[in-house]
Specification:
This protein has 261 residues and is an all-alpha fold. The protein has seven helices and two strands.
Length: 261
């Protein structure tokens, strides 16, 4: 968790802020979020290898968990958003995106780790701009050709030609600039805000318990209660954000492959 040291100046509580998300290097230029990203890849790889190493017709709980995640990525997300037979090549990508975002989000709830990696904007931007963005435009160009894809995306069929003067610049801005940025901002904003709220309630409770006057100490229990409640809510948000990131990624791929706009 970002800097759990309580800052008090002159007896006043100083709430945590954005500065608490910029952690000092562990060694060299390597920071805690960098280590967590690598660790998440190891965790995901080991999980699926162990879960599928000795598969049985009647699955164990471990195998059942892996199959449930796979089913979610394959049938609930990829098949529904991409459709037809086109979805099959993209199942590994969608499954990986969901798993990666989920594990890095859940780091924010694990004791001693307690830092959601995607609360650093660079990581979701890298996923969106360097992975998802090139994939869905590449498959669109491959399916429809360079001119055909641009025509489909920038000149929606059925619109009056004069409207294209207004519509086409909007489509360019949306499809080629804003889509990857908003995809990243959704998960970043949720993780940043959620972690900051947990910090506020936790550190406020600690301050009230240790530093406040006697008559205010019982109020710390309220702060801690809110911290616990927000932890459960944040866990739900973490799962939902992983789902939304994978869902929108599949949706963009499906739109790029579709014949119509």
């Amino acid at each position: 968790m970002a800097k759990l040291a309580l800052l008090a100046e002159g007896g006043e509580f100083v709430p945590p802020g954005a500065k608490d998300f910029f952690l000092p290097p562990i060694f060299g230029g390597v920071t805690k979020p960098m280590v967590l990203v690598v660790l998440s890849v190891v965790i995901i790889g080991v999980f699926f290898v162990l879960a599928t190493r000795n598969m049985k017709l009647v699955p164990s709980k471990f195998q059942f968990a892996a199959e449930s995640i796979y089913d979610l990525g394959r049938n609930t997300i990829a098949r529904e958003q991409i459709g037809g037979k086109d979805f099959k090549p993209f199942v590994p990508l969608i499954l990986t995106l969901f798993s990666f975002v989920l594990v890095n989000n859940l780091f924010g709830l694990i004791p001693l780790v307690q830092f959601p990696t995607l609360s650093h904007i660079g990581f979701p931007l890298a996923l969106s701009i360097l992975v998802v963005y090139p994939v869905y435009h590449f498959v669109g160009f491959k399916r429809h050709g360079f001119v055909g894809y641009l025509k489909k995306e920038l000149f929606p069929a059925g619109a009056p030609k004069p409207i294209y003067l207004l519509l086409t610049p909007i489509e360019i801005f949306t499809k080629f600039i804003m889509n990857p940025i908003t995809l990243a901002i959704r998960v970043f904003a949720a993780m940043f805000a959620g972690h900051l709220i947990l910090l506020v309630f936790t550190l406020a409770g600690e301050y009230l318990l240790l530093e406040a006057g006697t008559w205010l100490k019982p109020v710390s229990l309220i702060s801690f209660a809110f911290a616990i409640a927000m932890t459960f809510l944040e866990a739900l948000v973490m799962v939902i954000q992983a789902y939304i990131f994978a869902l929108l990624s599949a949706s963009y791929i499906g739109q790029a492959l579709a014949s119509d706009h």
